[in-house]
Amino acid sequence: MLKGNFYNSANTTQDAGQISATIALNAAHPVFQGHFPDQPVVPGVCMMQIITETLEEAVQKKVQLQKASQMKFLNMIDPVKQPQVDITVNYKEDEGGLKVNAVLKYEATTFMKFQGIFK
């Protein structure tokens, strides 16, 4: 679990099938010493974990990624230059699980778009 150490969330709003929050990244986290020294970048796997943890909070249960039909990394997140990122996760029950669309962005810059299914 990355929440509480790698990032914290604030300004969380939740409606039926949608959760939005502002993520505050911890630029001093040890992961950035290796990814990459003197030029920190949030790893894609961490972005996916943030989406997963946000979804789990919304549905109040553990979930596991079953299928990623779209996972686009459009811009790098430098936690020093972009210490805050907005996340929006839309989800709905489907016969195959939870159909999810998520976006990580800040102002006009989109960092990641995701579509997939969690169970």
From TrEMBL:
It comes from Chitinophaga solisilvae. The lineage of its organism: Bacteria, Pseudomonadati, Bacteroidota, Chitinophagia, Chitinophagales. It holds the Pfam family ApeI-like. This is 3-hydroxyacyl-ACP dehydratase. GO terms for molecular function: lyase activity. Residues 13-94 form the ApeI dehydratase-like domain.
